[in-house]
Q: What sequence folds into this?
């Protein structure tokens, strides 16, 4: 029993072997940028994290952003603290330490280290983009490139922070989340494909070969949504147009044809002049009858002929107004003429009565003269 506890006690006594881990070795090209993740246990969520640089822990110097090229970011949600170095230079190569301040008497800080190599040539292992994204339920592919030195070495894909997640092309085991496919054609590229992404797949990963690791951060975005469509109840039947409806439809079609007859022949197809006969779909039991052309749809006019129809309506409106004015004038003239005729008849009647009275008076005068004689 005592012999079994010895390895555990030894591991707990080694700084960095408990609750804190990062990559072991990285290579990067000068003038490029890298982000190094360092994962910690949840019990260190509220502790102060820092990075320092030096061959030995006791002589390392805290990393400070003196020229705007270095930045340290702590993400308690992901339990990771990252060191980002932009515009890499040869002097940036060396050993870096990721550490957590514990504090208190006789309590050493927890730390772990990695080796960074900066080269002017192409690195032995690299990726085009250290950050990739894919939609939930979708797929994403990552290409890990390697030099001829690593051609015959085993390439692995690991989940950063999970020391037992590494998988190789020949040592695959089922994944709890997205399906993982690895392929290495031996042509300088190791391809990793994740199929059926889930939210839990987001996080840090790395490509690894011969002890060299390249971190890759995976973002899983929300799945694209399609707009909701209003679903109408299925129609089992439609009424058959009656004879009066067909006659009205024919009259409307003839009127529409006359209005648009001055348009080129290419636009004549914009107005349907023959209703399509009903078609029956589905099984004999359903007898679903649909109409490709409904009487109300025959007045649909393409926007290209709308101005012409509008002008025609203006012309017809002008004709109607002019006709109304002429009709009113004719009515007024007829009334005036009738009034004049009535006045003329009245004058003739008065003249006749006056003439008759004059004749009677003359006749009476003649009779009086005859009697006097």
A:
């Amino acid at each position: 029993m005592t012999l079994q506890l010895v390895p555990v006690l030894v591991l707990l006594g080694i700084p960095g072997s408990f609750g804190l881990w990062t990559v072991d070795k990285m290579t990067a090209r000068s003038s490029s940028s890298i982000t190094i993740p360092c994962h910690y246990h949840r019990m260190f969520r509220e502790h102060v994290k820092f990075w320092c640089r030096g061959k030995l822990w006791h002589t390392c110097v805290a990393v400070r952003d003196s020229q705007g090229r270095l930045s340290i970011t702590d993400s308690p949600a992901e339990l990771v603290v990252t060191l980002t170095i932009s515009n890499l230079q040869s002097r940036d190569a060396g050993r870096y330490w990721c550490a957590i301040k514990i504090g208190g008497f006789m309590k050493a800080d927890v730390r772990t280290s990695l080796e960074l190599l900066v080269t002017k040539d192409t690195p032995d292992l690299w990726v085009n983009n250290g950050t990739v994204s894919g939609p939930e339920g979708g797929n994403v592919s990552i290409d890990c490139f390697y030099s001829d030195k690593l051609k015959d070495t085993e390439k692995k894909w690991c989940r950063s922070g999970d020391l037992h997640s590494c998988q190789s092309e020949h040592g695959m085991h089922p994944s709890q989340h997205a399906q993982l496919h690895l392929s290495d054609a031996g042509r300088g590229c190791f391809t990793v494909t994740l199929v059926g992404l889930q939210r839990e797949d987001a996080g840090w990963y790395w490509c690894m070969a011969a002890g060299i690791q390249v971190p890759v951060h995976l973002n899983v975005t929300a799945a694209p949504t399609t707009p909701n469509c209003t679903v109408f109840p299925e129609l089992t039947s439609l009424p058959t147009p009656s004879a009066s409806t067909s006659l009205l439809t024919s009259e409307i079609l003839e009127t529409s044809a006359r209005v648009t007859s001055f348009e080129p022949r290419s636009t004549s197809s914009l107005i349907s002049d023959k209703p399509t006969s009903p078609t029956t779909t589905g099984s004999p039991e359903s007898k679903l009858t649909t109409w490709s052309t409904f009487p109300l749809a025959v007045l649909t006019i393409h926007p290209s002929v709308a101005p012409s129809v509008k002008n025609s309506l203006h012309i017809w409106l002008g004709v109607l107004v002019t006709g109304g004015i002429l009709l009113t004038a004719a009515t007024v003239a007829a009334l005036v003429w009738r009034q004049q005729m009535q006045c003329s008849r009245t004058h003739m009647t008065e003249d006749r009565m006056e003439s008759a009275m004059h004749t009677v008076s003359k006749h009476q005068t003649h009779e009086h003269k005859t009697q006097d004689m």
The mean pLDDT is 76. The radius of gyration is 50 Å. Residues 242 and 315 are 34 Å apart (CA to CA). The helical segments are 2-13, 243-259, 306-372.
